[in-house]
Design goal:
Chains A, B: One of its GO terms (cellular component) is aminoacyl-tRNA synthetase multienzyme complex. The structure is a homodimer. Chain A is α+β, with helices and mostly antiparallel strands. Chain A is built from 11 helices and 16 strands. The interface between A and B is large, with 89 and 90 residues.
């Protein structure tokens, strides 16, 4: 048997008979000749034949002679081919996959996702996503983090009562985890530095371009920090790893025409109170989407950075486990990372003392009983720690300039969509 | 500020004043001197002081002079220390974490998991698990796989109606995915070769040592195979990567006294029918646990391999998407991988033609309607493909000789256990 050769490797085989395999990307029957373009995971192969072209998306195996042709994709084509069908296509794809610009609306793309995503420009987005995750992990591995896998089924909806999916758990009420927050914090007590890449679930009732019922969260939590500046430093390191790994997918980046950002050695930081002044003397407790856009544009213009940390977010807008800013407890040791006009990451330092947790819950009028198994962890000695969570689909969308995160999710789940 | 030094690095700093930080693993107050053993993620540091020892699990920062002492852990100790408390321990750990053998029963360990897992021998298991996953991914990256993230919320309980968790999904009925089977198959149409590391859910009503309500599945699916032998070859490659990566955690392997297996260049394969003969002329359609043990011992004894593929499993015991064995459709192109007496992995070739799926469902008396979005994929041209799934917790348990997979799960979920 002749071993299979990928499209991208063909140019090294001119003059040889080789076997390629893939999908019929396009067939063009001219008067005297037929061009069959075969797509595999590495690219396209032009096959020159006399017969009719198989239907689009038929899976074929082609044995033929590799010949130079400067007008063919990759500068080579296969002539004198023998074409065998490995898998019939008995239905037409939802749109022509060979058109450079996807000729379909978002609902059409999503309804036919398993086939739509075969379009090279759609597939390339997920290659960038996969590379980003690999970069995240290798950056964190390099600083001694341990990867963990935590429960997605939890006994109480601790992080926020709303937006949580209920499950029938052997006759008991349970919930889908909205984040691995409590687990990753507790695992700082075991491994000091941890990360998790996994699904999180939000019963998000609003149909927006930014929210999904399930997304992939890249979570990290780091012990023995001084304060949130150490967390920002680890986040900067992770982001740099993600960008650099994405950049290594040269073909995908080029196909998408993606402009990847520079990650400054130190991402500029502005305190929330300073940001309010810059925004014209505001006195809000949160940033509006317009504020995020303005601050992001300001950082790009004035500081030459597409990334901007806004630190010291008001405690009023942060969860109870957030560490207040020493000396000014109106603010917190927590931050948002803005990227190209949007909040990309939220992170910060957490409380680490048992008594501080009890006080924080009391101040918010919440019962410690609901958080008992979480609070127990802090009764057993925990170091100062903090972390962050990056939404993978949002990251990929921002990186590639895609407006709706459904486009950077293989099979999005939202209030309307439960299939495919 | 003096930068923090890890326990494992101390020997390189003899004669220097350094700062270490960690948990009080043990305090021993003798007549004239107190030894405080501080545990960090790299190991133990002996601190020699005059005062009382802080309570077990107190988080401390110690600045002291590194001095050689052949009787101390790592051959060095810290003298003239200044000890500062970073995080108080206000409750005692569930058991003494410093005892070499964990002095607690499984329920005690699991009830106090966030603290129990600080025990070096328990933590080391999860370092091996993390290394195994890293090895799985790098082996598959090396052969051109793309990592995917698929929905854990699905619209129909396709794989098997039983053992599925129901969710209230915005007022509709939905389910937790029992496997990424259908998604990973469909993504072969996009990426040719994919893998996913993620949670899967089984409403397992039996309280066994081998089953959990959630576990971490290492899934792979590979297109353009000839048959299941190619799948076995990829699985062998992945397993070799996992073992080799686990072996790189020298400290953890040594602490656990783990004997890691040799992965043969070719793992021996025995056909199910042959296995029946070896088992004394049986004519069953599945292997019993006793059969698995016998065959595994036979392979170790006769073939010198701790791994054994049993191929050609009867179709009667395999899901409808399994590819039958050409020429003998009583059997299938699917296999189990036995390891140290137990089934570790199931895998095989899948059907890839639309008509074959329709026929397979009709033969089982099932309606294609329930599988519509899955079947659609095969109407659009799919290559011959196959794959496998490795349960991470079961893998780690087998590798380390642990009897119950709850011990190799950070926070196990079963019919009784929903916390911590």
């Amino acid at each position: 048997m002749i071993a299979r050769v990928l499209a991208a490797e063909l140019a090294a085989h001119i003059g040889e008979r080789v076997r390629v395999a893939g999908w019929v990307h396009r067939g063009r029957e001219l008067k005297s000749v037929t061009f069959v373009i075969v797509r595999d995971r590495s690219g396209l192969t032009q096959v020159v034949t006399a017969g009719p072209a198989p239907a689009q998306e038929t899976v074929v195996e082609v044995t033929g002679l590799v010949t130079a042709n400067s007008k063919a994709p990759g500068g080579v084509e296969l002539v004198e081919p023998v074409i065998a069908v490995l898998g019939e296509a008995v239905a037409a794809p939802p749109f022509d996959l060979y058109r450079p610009v996807v000729p379909a609306t978002l609902p059409t793309i999503l309804d036919g996702a398993p086939v739509s995503l075969r379009h090279p420009a759609l597939r390339a987005q997920f290659e960038i996503a996969a590379a980003s995750v690999a970069g995240f992990r290798s950056a964190l591995d390099a600083i001694g983090c341990t990867e963990i896998h935590t429960p997605k089924i939890v006994g109480s909806a601790t992080e926020s009562g709303a937006n949580v999916f209920g499950i029938d758990y052997f006759g008991r009420r349970a919930f889908l985890a909205q984040s691995p927050q409590f687990f990753k914090q507790s695992m700082v007590g075991v491994f000091e530095r941890v990360y998790e890449v996994g699904p999180v679930f939000r019963a998000e009732p609003h149909d927006t371009a930014r929210h999904l019922a399930q997304y992939t969260s890249l979570d990290a939590e780091i012990g023995f920090i001084t304060d949130d500046r150490d967390v920002m430093s680890v986040l900067r390191h992770a982001i740099a790893g993600m960008v650099s790994s994405a950049a290594s997918r040269v073909e995908a980046v080029s196909l998408l025409g993606a402009r990847l950002p520079e990650v400054p050695a130190e991402i500029p930081v502005i305190h929330f109170a300073e940001a309010q002044k810059l925004l014209g003397g505001k006195d809000e407790i949160d940033l509006s989407p317009a504020d995020e856009r303005w601050l992001s544009a300001w950082a790009a213009r004035e500081l030459g950075s597409e990334f901007l940390f806004v630190s010291g977010f008001p405690m009023a807008k942060r969860p109870f486990y957030t560490h207040p800013q020493p000396g000014n407890p109106k603010y917190s040791n927590s931050f948002d990372l803005l990227f190209r006009g949007l909040e990309l990451v939220t992170g910060g330092q957490r409380l680490h003392r048992h008594a501080d947790y009890l006080a924080a819950l009391a101040e918010r009028g919440e019962s410690p009983e609901a958080y008992r198994s979480y609070l127990d962890v802090f009764a057993h000695g925990m170091p100062p720690h903090g972390g962050f969570a990056i939404g993978l689909e949002r990251w990929t969308a921002r990186l590639l300039g895609v407006a709706n995160i459904r486009q950077t999710t293989l099979f999005p789940r939202d209030i309307h969509r439960l299939t495919p």
